[in-house]
Amino acid sequence: MKTKIIGHRGGAAGYPENTLIAFRKAVELGADGVEFDVQLTKDGEVVVIHDEFIDRTMNGSGLVKNHTLKELKEMNVGEFFSSDFKEEKIPTLKEVLEIVKGLEIINIELKNYLSYPKLEEKVLKLVDQFKIRDKVIISSFNHYSLEKVKKLQPAAKTGALLMSKMINPSDYVFKRGFNSLHMHFLTFDQKIIEKSHFMGIETCAYTVNYPSAAADLLKNGIDMIITDDIEMVQKVREKN
Ligand code: G3P
Ligand code: CA
Fold first, then answer.
1. Which residues touch 1 (CB under 8 Å, ≥6 apart)?
2. Which GO terms describe its biological process (predicted)?
3. Which of 91, 100, 166, 230 could bridge 95 with an S-S bond, Cβ 3.0-4.6 Å?
């Protein structure tokens, strides 16, 4: 099976992360999919942003959850990267799905270390409205949240994000009833990938920005590579 290339936060190498321009570019570049992070605003809207605080990427400060969508839309989310992108606004999940709905894989990461009431329900509802259930992977470091997703919609594809190396990660994912194993690229090896496949679990490595690391993962049969640099991994894949 051909390894799929997934643009991290859209494809953050050349564009500000998690912005509409980054997602448009990922589609244009022919990425197989995109990965991005979602959280809730004060008024309960699902927005696409990585940090819980807006300080790093927006011209404001404080928690995402303490601002309404209207307040956030008045700020920009591109200037931190370059003044060329100062018109970029924080996207809603709906706005991003409009752009990426045609891709093969849409990896929505629930960034819910904080408590976000009904985030799971809201994301599943939008995915259903777009009729893209089969291509969406909902991932999270919060595995209780993934269990909630499974309870709400048993057929939903869930990806367990792991921060560090653990013993028998594929057994863990299998036992908890998730569908894919998402680990830092340095913690994958051929054995883990093979065992996962034997157990019917897909494998996804993040965030792969070195050609040699991409080549190793491709050789070992990884299913998905999340990268900031879509074109770099495409070149490596062509050669392998
Ligand atoms: O989904 C993989 C990767 O995005 C997790 O790390 O911090 O970039 O969200 P982070
Ligand atoms: Ca992420």
1. 221, 223
2. lipid metabolic process
3. 91
**Residue 197 falls in the annotated catalytic set:** no
For residue 164, tell me if it sits in a domain. yes
Q: Which domain holds residue 17?
A: 4-52+92-239
10 Å Cβ neighbour count for 163? 9
Is the Cβ atom of 35 under 6 angstroms away from ligand 1?
yes
With respect to residue 60, please indicate whether it lies within any of the assigned structural domains.
no
In a domain, 215, yes or no: yes
Structure tokens at 21: 């321009």
Q: How many domains does the chain have?
A: 1
Pairing of strands 33-40, 105-110: parallel
> 97 falls in which pLDDT band (50, 70, 90)?
very high
Q: What percent of the chain has pLDDT over 90?
A: 95
Full-model pTM: 0.98
Q: What is the pLDDT of residues 30-59, one digit of tens each?
A: 999 999 999 999 999 999 999 999 999 999
Please check whether residue 126 is in contact with residue 94, taking contact to mean a CB–CB distance below 8 angstroms: yes
Would you say residue 45 lies in a domain?
A: yes
Residue 109 Cβ contacting ligand 1 at under 6 Å: yes
